[in-house]
Description:
By secondary structure, this protein is an alpha+beta fold. Helix content is 29%, strand content 32%. It has a single domain (23-155), classed as Molybdopterin cofactor biosynthesis C (MoaC) domain (Alpha-Beta Plaits, 2-Layer Sandwich), CATH 3.30.70.640.
Amino acid sequence: MEFTHIDKDQRPTMVDVSEKKVTERIAIAESIVNLGSDIMSAFAEAGWSSKKGPILDSAIIAGTMAAKKTSELIPFCHPLNLKSVKIKIEPADSARLRIEAKVKVLDQTGVEMEALTAASVAALTIYDMCKAVSKDVTIESTRLVVKTGGKSDFKRSIQ
Length: 159
């Protein structure tokens, strides 16, 4: 197994993408936030608003901002000129929200980390805005769902 961010001297390094072709690259990540059915229905009835403001809108804005800042947060991520960040939040069931972050770029490297960061920060924002109501809110998972446009495409089944 070869780690791309470790050089021949076993030192951390940023991957050189200068020889790669510029292609359209898309990544989709998801996070699942478990609010519990009582909290879910209470916020749904309240129009997804809390004392801190509009929960879902705030999460979408935070996730979008995070995608644009990924290279400042993850040491070896390349700064990218993102072409699109779309975040969708919908019920996964009666207790959980599913956050989907889709990120697109025309570049020499992929946007998996940007999509994962967007989904993660959107989930953290929901957690932050709901924690005063319940300490039982949990972020269950964050994962890459789709990656296209590089040398290897990837698609995970969504449950």
